[in-house]
């Protein structure tokens, strides 16, 4: 995993996910641990399972509709009973200033949860992550490492693991 994007401390959680169903289950398990105001970076190469994890989170929050990658729209908005969840994908960003120009900054607020794929493409224009989830292909499965970078992130991880 890339220490520049995942943090300087050991992961708070490390797991091997053998199947896509395991990735969806981790996302569903993460859902009740989430709180409004969280910014979560999803870090990994193409095919690492970032959108699958986001789909699991949304299923865990009770969202019954289709969950697609926001690669072309840059953001997918989900209004759930208790919050807004914004799923960003900055893969196509060529200039981090596009975040400001697109008006996305307002989505990062105390009443929403933001899942961000390819955060390194928006660099310093993004709020700092509360939680970073690094994913990489490991054989036929995925290896994930979860890092809590703020007190809100630590509370989230504590809820996830207990």
Provide structural commentary:
The chain has 162 residues and is an alpha/beta fold. It is 25% helix and 28% strand. It contains 5 helices and 7 strands; from the N terminus they run αβαβαββαβββα. A 7-stranded mixed β-sheet has the order 1-7-6-2-5-4-3. Strand 3 and strand 4 form a beta hairpin. Helix 2 packs across helix 3 (50-60). The longest helix has 11 residues, at 20-30. It starts with a helix and ends with a helix. 38% of the residues are buried.
Task: Fill in the keyword field for this structure.
162 residues; alpha/beta; 7-stranded mixed beta sheet; 5 helices; globular
Task: Enumerate the strands of the largest sheet in spatial order, edge to edge or round the barrel.
Answer: 1-7-6-2-5-4-3
Spell the H/E element sequence: HEHEHEEHEEEH
* DSSP strand count: 7
Broad structural category: alpha/beta
What ranges have pLDDT less than 50 throughout 5 or more consecutive residues? none
Q: Averaged pLDDT, please?
A: 87
Question: What is the CA-based Rg, rounded?
Answer: 14 Å
Biggest sheet layout: 7 strands, mixed
Shape: globular
Percent strand: 25-35%
Instruction: Tell me the distance between the termini.
Output: 25 Å
Helix content: 25-40%
Q: Helix tally? A: 5
């Amino acid at each position: 995993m890339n220490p520049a994007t995942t943090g300087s401390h050991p992961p708070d959680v490390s797991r091997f996910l053998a199947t896509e169903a395991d990735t969806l289950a981790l996302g569903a398990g993460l859902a009740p641990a989430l709180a409004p105001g969280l910014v979560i970076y999803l870090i990994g190469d193409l095919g690492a399972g970032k959108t699958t994890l986001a789909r699991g989170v949304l299923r865990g929050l009770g969202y019954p509709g289709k969950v697609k990658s926001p690669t072309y729209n840059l953001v997918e908005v989900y209004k759930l009973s208790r919050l807004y969840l914004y799923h960003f994908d900055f893969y196509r960003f060529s200039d981090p200033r596009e975040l400001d120009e697109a008006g996305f900054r307002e989505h990062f607020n105390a009443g929403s949860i933001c899942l961000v794929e390819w955060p390194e493409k928006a660099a310093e224009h993004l709020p700092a992550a509360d939680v970073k989830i690094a994913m990489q292909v490991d054989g036929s499965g995925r290896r994930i490492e979860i890092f809590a970078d703020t007190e809100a992130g630590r509370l989230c991880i504590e809820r996830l693991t207990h």
